[in-house]
Amino acid sequence: MGARDWLAGVSGRKAYALASLLLLAPCYWQPRLQAGDLSNLIYNGWLSGLLEGGRAQGLEIASRWTNVLFDFILRGLFRALGPEAAQRISVSIAVLTFAWGAFAFVSVVSGKRAWYLMPSIAMLAYGWVFRMGFFDFYLSLGLCFWGMAVAWDPKPWRVAAALPIFLLAYFSHALPVVWMLGLLSYVSLARPLTPKRRALLTANFVLAMVVCNLLVAHLMFIEGALAPTAAASGVELAVFGPKYYAVLAGLAAVWGVLFAGLIRGSGARQVVTGIPFQVCLVAASAVIAMPITLMIPGFYLALSYVGERMSLGVAVCVCALLGAVRPRLVERWALVAVALAFFALVYRDQRALNSREDQMQNVVARCGFAASFQRSAFSDRLPPALPSEVKHAE
Questions:
Q1: First vs last Cα of the chain: how many Å apart?
Q2: Secondary structure of the chain: what % helix, strand, coil (to 5)?
Q3: Helix 38-52 vs helix 69-81: angle between axes, to the nearest 10 degrees?
Q4: CA distance 92 to 206
Q5: What 3-state DSSP class applies to 16?
């Protein structure tokens, strides 16, 4: 390896390190992490410690094989480092897994490292799924993107290498695994086909998803399906209200310009009949066909927000489609500007939530409740104050 190649490699490693630090900044820039169900996961980690120590009689830990990986990570860090460090580190692991998994998938599909799309991936990493605190699902989706990146070129050794990744993702959450395996099945079938036959295959996949949704509705309790307008409304970025629609509009405008450039450069027919576009179409159709809420027999809790969750995967598939574009300088900076606007709004809203929690803690402290609670039997290693947000089971 020559000196020039070595310097290029060092520069590349530094770029990844710097990007990782920037990705993690929102996990540390406020006194508390505002991520919906995270507070419930922290409480469960604390409670599991009491159960294992025999200090919570009458309760027991249920055994499960999925929707548990993030909980295991959080619980282990809780024991070793306490609640504050545990939540920061475990969420950081999930963010890096998702962001770099999405980046790897986009790079493999587009055939190049699409660094200019990293601001978009960062915005998606801190979108609706993150704010709801669905971290087992979030971590599973990130692992599935890693598995998709490995198995995109379906050589036997690559498929074998991807299987442990998908198995690990299943321990985190089953839904992204089923979704990604369906996409891989489509890609493996579509790759050798002519454009005309590929379009027919896509139509059959979409029809099959509609039929499956009808069967699921007949066999299980479901609550509706995500309307096409809702699926396209950018639920992933509207994390704290309608004011984020301006950011969404800016992102949609830049993506539209990039897609127009892709059409001009490659031709409409080649783009529309290409596998990346067809994957976006199949993925979006799956989200639209999915029910909002699904009650699976044998489970006590419903699987909710199914379509909203999977819209995150669709957005990453769109990034993979746009990764083949050669953006102009103005388009690169436009994506950076949109991302800066998004994170500025997120910072302001998180600061407001933290300020409100500080006020609530002060009120509780003045009432004397905090002191009496600290003297309770279970006061050792209590979790921090929990965010006053709606908690929802994953």
A1: 49
A2: 70, 5, 25
A3: 70
A4: 36
A5: helix
Please count the residues of the chain: 394
Q: Per-residue DSSP letters for 235-246?
A: TTT-SSSGGGHH
Residue 389 placed within a domain: no
Q: How many domains does the chain have?
A: 1
Q: What does 170-184 look like in DSSP terms, one character per residue? A: HHH-HHHHHHHHHHH
Q: Where are the beta strands (DSSP E) in the chain?
A: 221-225, 291-295, 303-304
Find the helix packing angle between 135-151 and 83-110, rounded to 10°. 30
- 187: helix, strand or coil: helix
For residue 186, give the nearest of 202, 166, 175 by alpha carbon: 202
Tell me how far apart the alpha carbons of residues 106 and 82 are, in angstroms, rounded to a whole number.
36
User: Is residue 4 in some structural domain?
Assistant: no
193 located within any domain: yes
Domain that holds residue 162: 15-28+36-357
Mean pLDDT for back-to-back runs of 10 residues, the chain (394 residues): 41 82 90 76 69 62 74 84 86 95 94 91 91 89 94 86 92 88 88 84 82 66 48 56 84 93 87 89 80 60 73 92 91 94 90 79 69 47 42 44
As a whole number of angstroms, the distance between CA 343 and CA 24 comes to: 12
Question: How many degrees, rounded to 5, is the angle at CA 316 between CA 314 and CA 320?
Answer: 110
Q: What are the CA-CA distances from residue 239 to residues 119, 153, 312 (Å)?
A: 17, 35, 13
Does residue 344 belong to any structural domain of this protein? yes
- CA angle (202, 208, 214) in 5-degree steps: 145
Q: Which residues contact 304 (CB under 8 A, 6 or more apart)?
A: 292, 293, 294, 392, 393
